[in-house]
Amino acid sequence: MLLILVACAAAGAAGRIFGGDWVWGGFAAVLMLTTVIVLRGAWQPAGRGTVNAQAATRDAYMTHNRSFTLNAGGLSAVVGATLIMAVNGLLVAHVSTDVPGGRYYRPTGPEPGADRRSAPPNAVTPVFLRDLPREQIRGTSGVSVEAGARITGRQCSRSIYQPVSAIGLARIITLTPTTRYQRFMALAGMPDDEDLKASVEFVLLGDDQRVIGRRTVSPGKPAEFDQDISAYATLYLRATLLTSKNGTEYGGDYRAVWGDAQLLPANGQPSVCPTSAGN
Questions:
Q1: Local structure of 31: helix, strand or coil
Q2: How confident is the model at residue 183 (pLDDT cuts 50, 70, 90)?
Q3: Best CA proximity match to 175, nearest among 130, 229, 235, 135
Q4: What is the pTM of this model?
Q5: Alpha-carbon distance 53 to 109, whole Å?
């Protein structure tokens, strides 16, 4: 009995690991149990039984004995068990490679149920902050377009950045787009070549300096912004140097990068910092 339980548990574990969830794990375990039951029957010795039938007639009370043989094993049981095990293996293999959630699943296109916000019908391209007219984007220390900031290996080629050097001194970019947008997206971070001991606070604010999103980052540890901005006419991007290699008393020359910062309409298709270089 213990060996049977171990075999069924192993099949269930294989279904869970390779099939992606416990539904397929349970299915694999049940098929294994069915296989064991069929195989056990194949090795049962043939049995014999006796049927006693009694019939009353007008002339005599008679007893009729009949014998029969129960054949529980045989080649058919072995073939059936083999087919069950083959079907079990093929189903788990199919789920593991062709069904989302399987261990070896590799989609060739968009997965069913994927976030449709990224590619809605009639989607339009985003408006990158670097492409806004100068009268719609202003900075306390100027706004710089960064052509090749790399953040954790991701090429953010459509970015803007703020130079931050003094601890606690905020740098602010003011956005006054003439069109209302639905979302703001960016990969906020510091370039990979910056000092690892530094950290910067990124804040997205709306009208009247209301905080919409706040993140603290350091080299190698960026943060995603994906915020609803539909209620705001004016946006502020604030970056503040928190720590540096020189401690907390004075800073250095650092770049606070809003990687591929963009504004999206309701039907916008986002595109933030691909993993390979490109514009």
A1: helix
A2: very high
A3: 235
A4: 0.54
A5: 70
